[in-house]
Amino acid sequence: MKKKIVLILLAGALLSAPIFAKSNPAEFDPFGSPQRVMAGVKIGLLSWAFTVTPSAAIPPLGASVEIPFSMISKSDSDFARSLNLGFEFMFEQWSYDYPFLTSSYSYIYSNSYITLFGAFYYDLFRVAKLKPFAKLNLGYFVASASVRAPASIQPFVGNPTAVSSLAINVSVGARYFFAENFSAVAEIGYGISLFTLGVEYSFGPKAAEAVKAKNKPGNKKPPAKPKKPSSGKKK
Predict the structure, then answer these.
(1) Is residue 222 part of a domain?
(2) Is residue 107 part of a domain?
(3) How does residue 50 score in pLDDT terms, banded at 50, 70 and 90?
């Protein structure tokens, strides 16, 4: 399943290659991520923690930081303005209670992952405050379990261990700027949660504006003038 998803993404990237030709400034420009550094929190609404009714659960909670590629590359090209790079962490936990003779015990499960991601923005809807995107996460996933039981029955309930693997997550989503520096984010896709909602804060100058300002001819320092040789005579 993962291989099919990756192949579909690669095919989509190849088919969309012609759209990276430089757009006409007089026409609608579909390229451009939110050109600011963004940081926020999110919550997952569909995950393993809710496949069956647990005794107790912490829903998937996460945090992320996203940086415009144009700020990193110092470029104002369509590609640089369409791509953001970032870091994301998510965690969830749930437990089940089981009876055992006259007592009971609990299994506690948790999933966590830490990933780097790339988010490609392309404006499909031509709505100024709405920014659709496709996202690919690569990182590390850890699934662990533990047992909470009275000492008298501990030998009979086992001792589970943690399992880790490479995490490859794909999703599509959109962010909507409901204020100058705040946006609501929704994502659907394969990951620790099938559906997530979040709020992010944008700060700092817009990356594209900063790059343009830096590259203006008037802002470039003129080359240093060569020093004239000393005309003084030696005594």
Answers:
(1) no
(2) yes
(3) low
Q: How many CB atoms lie within 10 A of CB 136?
A: 18
Q: What is the CATH number of the domain that holds 131?
A: 2.40.160.20
* The two three-digit tokens of residue 13, written as one number: 């990237």
pTM: 0.71
In a domain? residue 223: no
Phi, psi of 192, deg, nearest 5: -65, -25
Q: Give the whole-angstrom CA distance, residue 226 versus residue 222.
A: 12
Identify the band that residue 182 occupies on the pLDDT scale cut at 50, 70 and 90: very high
10 Å CB burial of residue 153 (0-12, 13-18, 19+) is: middle
Number of domains in the chain: 1
Its domain, for residue 39, covers 29-213
Q: Write down how long the chain is.
A: 235
